[in-house]
């Protein structure tokens, strides 16, 4: 599907909401929540097995995108692409070995843009990929007002922390633990949720709006999670992937042989053949059980954030975005990894909550996001009233969040500059105009060598009602003349002193 089609629908079916009815439209806060390696195994995406009540509750008051896709199913390239609204062909990052500001161009990031508009920007957990891809600083001080927070217990993530049947500690893939026995008596995502709640409290009465990004590490491997979450998914109720076999005549380049699993002690002990396996079926069930348990574990941390937002009186002035950097294969096509282009690893959940737009305050005084304890509430059900089935991409997140916060949407990338570039390659999914959805002409993409250009969608308006500036662009008259560069054009380099 062309970029012109996937980016034109947004987010909100706004036919009944006028701009003046959106509280906090100017300078509203942003709570940006990202999971790691989370495919759409959520109740709000139709998964009947998973228990994700807090995320489902958020979705019931939000716009849910059913077909959202990452630019690349690898952590660092996907996160850098999304946060800069530049595709990997532009950031020149396909792995973990370069920092875009040095090797590609001095591209502005989403939090950097918000910071330049007076926002206090904060990062907790894994937002940028740590290390080389973010200059070992999580792009501080460019993107963040204060240094990024990383949970101390994450230092033990790949160490021998998992108690085996022999009562010894191992570096396993399946690593359900007694949290009280872990270093510090905690785990990384618990620490991140604690810190995020603390930051929310510290900014609750500030006159400056905030942009708080919270990145949870799970369900990324290893599955070092609280052991009680396994009880939510009895192994006898787990099933294998519906298509567990490696496709015949599959080109080797299309297959990821899950090398990041093979060195784990429990996987290594299986002596699985390289590259295609397969993993024994009983162990496959265990992997799927632990993945689902990790999702419920993350759901609890999300619930803690949302309930804190509610308790602090911020739910009616804070935009909430929930998404993942990419998915993960759970045995489909014989895969147990990301690093491929199968749908299960490129498709991600994307959920937008916009107070006054996707949901309105409850006149009865009920909480917007009451915390739901999955262990105390065996039965819960939420309905999604706002779903978008058209395809969208993570590269569109930056301009869309900017528009929803009432900021001027960054201009499209028009050429090469040695100066800092505040522009995007993504399209934004909404435009407010007399309660209708219009595809803005400056976001119209043109494919290299011509192409079909942009599609302008006007919902419920007569031509005489359209603002004059819509017709001042050649995009409206002749779409193939709108000058948008290809994604392979390079930006300006930072000069080393």
Features:
alpha/beta, two-stranded antiparallel sheet, 22% helix, 13% strand, disordered C terminus, 497 residues
How would you sum up this structure, described in words?
The chain is of the alpha/beta class and 497 residues long. It is 22% helix and 13% strand. The chain has a 7-stranded mixed β-sheet, with helices on both faces. β4 (162-163) and β5 form a beta hairpin. α2 crosses α10. Mean pLDDT is 81; it is low at 1-26, 414-420 and 430-497.
Low-pLDDT runs = 1-26, 414-420, 430-497
In angstroms, what separates the terminal alpha carbons? 44 Å
Oligomeric form of this entry?
Answer: single chain
The secondary-structure element order is: HEHEHHHHEEEEHEEHHHEHEEHEEEEH
What spatial order of strands do you see in the largest sheet?
3-7-1-9-10-2-11
Query: What proportion of the residues form beta strands (DSSP E)?
Result: 5-15%
Count of DSSP H/I helices: 13
The main β sheet shows up as: 7 strands, mixed
What topology emerges from the helices and strands here?
Elements: H1 3-6, E1 29-35, H2 53-60, E2 63-69, H3 75-84, H4 88-91, H5 100-103, H6 110-116, E3 120-125, E4 162-163, E5 169-170, E6 174-177, H7 188-203, E7 210-215, E8 223-226, H8 259-262, H9 265-268, H10 281-311, E9 318-324, H11 343-346, E10 347-353, E11 387-393, H12 397-404, E12 411-412, E13 423-424, E14 432-433, E15 436-437, H13 474-477
Parallel strand pairs: 1-7, 1-9, 2-11, 3-7, 6-8, 12-13
Antiparallel strand pairs: 2-10, 4-5, 9-10, 14-15
Helix pairs in contact: 2-10, 7-10
